[in-house]
Amino acid sequence: MAGVEVKVEGLSKSFGRANIWSDVSLTLPPGEVSVLLGPSGTGKSVFLKTLIGLLKPEKGSIVINDVDLVRCSESKLYEIRKLFGVLFQDGALFGSMNLFDNIAFPLREHTKKSEAQVKDIVAEKMDLVGLKGDEKKLPGEISGGMRKRAGLARALVLDPEIILFDEPDSGLDPVRTAYLNQLIIDLNAQTDATFLIVTHDINTAQTVPDNIGMLYRKHLAMFGPREVLLTSEEPVVSQFLNGRRQGPIGMSEEKDTAQAQREMAEAGELAGLPEMKPQLEVSPGVPERKAVGRRRERVQQMLHTLPPAAQDAIRRSYANEPVTAMAGGGGPLPQRVPPGAPGATEVLNPGDNPPTWFTGPGRHRPRM
């Protein structure tokens, strides 16, 4: 199992005269974990359903493996759907089936595997999500967290290359949410599949994904690597990711300008960029996530285009985290030092004038 790229261009969806969102363009990098955020009612679940072809958009394209799902034939769409695994918001288990039969359902429906093969695969996936020994239990006999994990096991049985999570943390207490988040990170490390998670949970958005996107007012406000979104000064993004009352988002939708200005005056000067929470690491014994190195390489390439405060925040976050998945070698990132300091290596980068000096190995590495 390995992830594939999902490229969305100019996607628009309406129900009758009600426009849900327009001109949504983003690319889900292969093998990485992405999160889609947004206030309630912004069409996040609609986006997931459109992504797998359950809903037809009016405009735009969704390209996977050089196939446009919006314009392809029904037979081709059916084949492409086999690349997906979906964890629905409530688990969507069949109440009259035990967990084994629920998880085995896609194998029996879409493959010609023998019952012995089905048994082995289901046992493997149930063990993977921590449900070994619960095969005969009914959905009504288990907790909400267990139902989520059973739904996840079912999403994994066909070894999908793309896994969609529709609010996996809804209805879960903070402890179960933390366990589920760790499970998602470990699964990504083991499968290198492409993950897209719809969530409202700020802690999940800050600590789990490689990439973050946000829907707001019928458009995609922003999408990019976690470091870029978490240091963004875009008002709606900053407000949502930091859980602030001050900003353009109101209780119903958008605040008027006067109200927003009044609240900002009452609050006074807001603190600058908060320290970024570290991204969750894999559990002991689980292989390193390849996605981390790929994402950080992209961030290195675009860092000089970001505002100075964002650059500094990203450098600080990297300096505090040992990196073992960097392209070109592991170890901690080099640190900025005065020119000529012991162990300093000169690194030239676009926009650096005068040159930037770092401690680190005796080779030139991209500026961080």
TrEMBL record:
<keyword id="KW-0067">ATP-binding</keyword>
<feature type="domain" description="ABC transporter">
    <location>
        <begin position="6"/>
        <end position="242"/>
    </location>
</feature>
<dbReference type="InterPro" id="IPR003593">
    <property type="entry name" value="AAA+_ATPase"/>
</dbReference>
<dbReference type="Pfam" id="PF00005">
    <property type="entry name" value="ABC_tran"/>
</dbReference>
<keyword id="KW-0547">Nucleotide-binding</keyword>
<protein>
    <submittedName>
        <fullName>ATP-binding cassette domain-containing protein</fullName>
    </submittedName>
</protein>
<feature type="region of interest" description="Disordered">
    <location>
        <begin position="323"/>
        <end position="368"/>
    </location>
</feature>
<dbReference type="GO" id="GO:0005524">
    <property type="term" value="F:ATP binding"/>
</dbReference>
<keyword id="KW-0813">Transport</keyword>
<dbReference type="InterPro" id="IPR017871">
    <property type="entry name" value="ABC_transporter-like_CS"/>
</dbReference>
<dbReference type="InterPro" id="IPR003439">
    <property type="entry name" value="ABC_transporter-like_ATP-bd"/>
</dbReference>
